[in-house]
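ingest -> validate -> predict -> emit
validate: passed (alphabet ok, no gaps, 289 aa)
predict: started
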Amino acid sequence: MAKKKKDAAPETQNGTVASQGDKGPYIPALSMEDQSKKYDVNTTAEKVRKRDWLIRIIALILLILLLIIGIGYCSITILNKAGRFTVSLVPNEYGIQLSETEDFDKPTLHLSAAPVEDMNNITKDWILNKNGELGEGDPVYESFTALDKVWGEHNGKNYLAYTFGVRNASADAQDVVSYRATLNLEYEYKGADEAVRVMVYRNGEPTVYAKPRTSDGKLERFAADKNFLEDDIVFEDIRSDFKVGETDRYTVVIWLEGEDPECVNAIMGGEAKFSMNFEVIGGGKTQVG
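emit:
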């Protein structure tokens, strides 16, 4: 009589004993150690996702900062390239134009003068350089009237000089306009504006502007005809009855007045930037007959 075979030993799966049941192999529940491993895997995946998000956020922040720095650098570059004196005219329908040449061969709405680097203090009479006060490289003028008649940029080593014109070039011969001219202090550093002088000629008539004395707010005693209109406005003027074909000539001269008590060592390395702005504020027809 044949002996009954013993039941085969349960198969093992990955080192775990699997018993044979009515519905197939029985796989026992994971041990506490195995459950811990499964939990570790899920936790690690979550950490990876969080780390990836953090990296993306940091990268985005760095990109934004770089863009801000880049925009700031470009703005500074544009500002420096604009020079320390600019002239602008608001676009208008009357054909009012700017030019740095007497014949207006290149009319425009914007002009700029090159900056004067490392400007040293001088006094007004030195600008003429009659006795060589400013050296051989600077121009010599017989008078300030002669200086006013040189068109365009004619800087010296220690002063800025710029002559330009405003013209009514309207196509309608009967157009007459009024415009506002404003000279602004756009920027100053280390108090350089306290000792600066701004001489403005309009059609040959000069006026020298200065910041008021810091001691009592009155007019400076040296090379000054009027105080600045406001802290950041040198002057404002209204030109009326400006007819077609007429040209107003302006010369702006800027220097550091060495006789000014505010011209001290503390302003060394300082800077001041000015702009002159024109805007048409009225227009109409001349009366005929």
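The chain has two domains: 25-81, 83-285.
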